[in-house]
Prior knowledge:
Layout: H1 9-48, H2 59-68
Protein name: Probable transposable element
Amino acid sequence: MRSRSPPSPLSSAINQVLKACQITMQSAAFLEKEVSELRAANEKQKQKVLDPGGRYLPMKASLFRKLLN
Length: 69
């Protein structure tokens, strides 16, 4: 039975680069999903800031309005 020789330095370096690429792609996918969820939540929040006439109120005005109620 033959024993396996340790990987060459070049092979180790390539494996490290591949692992880094995998981690980066996973992070990018996670961040893309998070941005999408935040944009959806932002749009939902904007809909809540419409006045009764359907006009968009600036955030300060809507906060002031909430304080008065």
